[in-house]
Amino acid sequence: MRTLPKPSMNELYPIFLKVNQLNTLLVGAGFVGLEKLSFLLKSSPNAHVTVVSKEFSEEFRALAAASKHVTLIEGPYEEKFLGGKHVVIAATNFREVNKQIHDDAKERFLLVNVADTPELCDFYLGGIVTKGNVKIAISTNGKSPTTAKRIRQLLEEVIPEDINELVENINRYRETLKGDFEYKVDALNKLTEGLVAKGKTEKAEEQ
Ligand SMILES: C[C@@]1(CC(=O)O)c2cc3[nH]c(cc4nc(cc5[nH]c(cc(n2)[C@H]1CCC(=O)O)[C@@](C)(CC(=O)O)[C@@H]5CCC(=O)O)C(CC(=O)O)=C4CCC(=O)O)c(CCC(=O)O)c3CC(=O)O
Ligand SMILES: NC(=O)C1=CN([C@@H]2O[C@H](COP(=O)(O)OP(=O)(O)OC[C@H]3O[C@@H](n4cnc5c(N)ncnc54)[C@H](O)[C@@H]3O)[C@@H](O)[C@H]2O)C=CC1
Predict the structure, then answer these.
(1) What is the CA(46)–ligand 2 centre distance, in A?
(2) Are residues 116 and 57 in the same domain?
(3) What is the ipTM for the molecules in this complex?
(4) pLDDT in tens, 133-168
(5) Domain co-membership, 187 together with 139
(6) Which of 48, 74, 152, 179 is a Cys-bridge partner for 127, taking CB atoms 3.0 to 4.6 Å apart?
């Protein structure tokens, strides 16, 4: 019988957001705000982001200026900035401001990330590996962001650059397949069997 995971275990469910079709509010443009925006734009150059901050560094302004869809608002956070947003990231250096942003966002049923308080996060920003169409997100359940960074670096090394060619080729084959769902699944499984064969053999040997 399968054992169910304990409630304290990792219950995160990863999803891949099309942030170019969503509006994100980032509050705070310090060290952390800069890091969050640069990772967001690296992965999604067309992300729609509004940044509210009491001050902006030259570095932050330069990063924002390089993207078409980043708007900067200089001044303190106000609840009205949540209007029309889907996702909120609170990254000010004041815990009580971040908490206020969290509470306002929850009142509006928005998804919120509070950079200094994992317990208040609806989602975490993860480490990200991108190889063409393949994207891998890494989280340590909020326990060790440094480990997420190291795993990201490791995967960047070991996943071959040409994995995207494989995906593109299989996609072309997929487009040519006629027939019902079951037939397609079967054909694609047969084609890609070799990709996991080694792992399967190892598993079989373990048993
Ligand atoms: C919960 C989470 C919330 C969120 O931000 O979404 C969070 C929270 C906190 N981070 C802190 C510290 C650091 N964060 C990093 C780096 C990253 N942090 C990222 C994500 C997350 N950080 C989310 C969980 C992700 C998961 O589940 O694993 C990454 C993966 C992605 C990204 O930033 O977009 C990115 C690496 C990207 C890459 O390189 O690939 C480094 C290392 C470095 O910068 O070199 C340090 C210093 C070393 C250390 O502490 O480990 C602190 C303490 C602050 C303090 O002490 O003041 C808190 C608050 C707390 O834990 O209380
Ligand atoms: N999640 C993560 O990866 C990490 C989170 N942190 C936490 O993130 C928080 C921010 O850290 P830093 O960026 O280093 O601080 P910082 O002092 O460099 O930047 C804070 C920014 O918030 C702005 N700000 C302050 N009050 C504001 C308000 N009322 N309205 C709008 N903007 C406001 C400031 O103008 C500044 O741009 C800290 O609490 C820190 O503990 C720190 C390291 C990593």
Answers:
(1) 24
(2) yes
(3) 0.96
(4) 999 999 999 999 999 999 999 999 999 999 999 999
(5) no
(6) 152
